[in-house]
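[job 4471] stage=fold_predict status=RUNNING
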Amino acid sequence: MNNKPQTPGLGVVLVSQLAIVVLGVAGIWALDVTLPAANINWMIASALGITLAVITFVIFLIIYRVGGRFAQMLLDDLRRVWGLFNGYSWGKITFIAALAGIGEELLFRGFFQTWMNGYLPIGWAILIASLVFAALHYLSHAYFICAVIMSIAFGVGYYLSGSLLMVVVWHGVYDLIALGVIVKYRHFIIVDTRQDSKIGLQ
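[job 4471] inference complete, writing structure tokens
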């Protein structure tokens, strides 16, 4: 696969992620959503976010390695992700991961979860935000379930810490690790690369 088809794909990804950032900021501003005060400073928030990102990736790596039908569905999804981002440089991967962390956490935690918590108990606010988050990330039933669980973890982390920075770092660093490994070192996750040729990923 050459790099020529990747440029339009990158443009679409960047525009969509920037649109999510704008939606999050616009929602907070238009509905006058007041973000909670953080219970931790920026250094602890950053360190905690990085630590949780690594732990989250290790958990998913164990799931991929254990195998079974659920893991196989996830691996099939990862092959599609690899096909979309194959050839991307570390700079592009980092930019995409950073935008995803900032934009999606601004929208789903900073705006949506906080806004709904003004009308619903926090448990329902986290659950609804997580279901919407997972629906917009749908690749398969298995991926949907993982996205719901991960989003709930982000939501609980945001509620307990009050730190949007912490979940932005958590989300962004996880995406950086996961996407980087999928694109650059997929043999760590996808052991049987013979399957790739069956779906046209040469």
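[job 4471] summary: The CA atoms of residues 8 and 14 lie 10 Å apart.
[job 4471] exit 0
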